[in-house]
Design brief:
This protein is mainly α. It has one domain: Cytochrome Bc1 Complex, Chain D, domain 2 (Orthogonal Bundle), CATH 1.10.760. It has five helices and no strands. α4 crosses α5. The chain is globular. The termini are far apart.
Length: 112
């Protein structure tokens, strides 16, 4: 089905408004959102950082390789991307609180 360009822009704008006004949570995202975030990690992040997160176009996301990086550095990288690299900003898709949960999830993962 063909969707005219103005309607696509409206759909994008509405989705961004929904994401930015999503209710905040104290510590962890709801279980369904955690599942979405883990799926994002596997498929979206994995497409550049490798499906096993050991690195590829982007650096390794294994806990041992992230351990020496400050959380605020990782937060800024995920939220705002890295200019001059293939790392895009994820701020339109993931809140700061979700990003912090995401970072802790990465740091808790055990890899070979």
């Amino acid at each position: 089905m063909y969707i005219p360009w103005p309607h696509k822009r409206l759909a994008l704008l509405l989705s961004l408004c929904f994401i930015s006004t999503a209710p905040a949570f104290a510590q962890n995202p709801p279980q369904d959102r955690q599942k979405e975030l883990r799926n994002m990690l596997k498929h979206d992040c994995g497409s550049c950082h490798g499906l096993t997160l050991k690195g590829g176009l982007g650096p390794s996301l294994l806990a041992k390789d992230l351990a020496n990086k400050p959380d605020d550095y990782l937060l800024d990288t995920i939220q705002n991307g890295r200019k001059g690299t293939a790392m895009p900003p994820w701020k339109p898709f993931i809140t700061e609180q979700e990003t912090r949960w995401f970072i802790q999830t990465l740091l808790r993962q055990q890899h070979d």
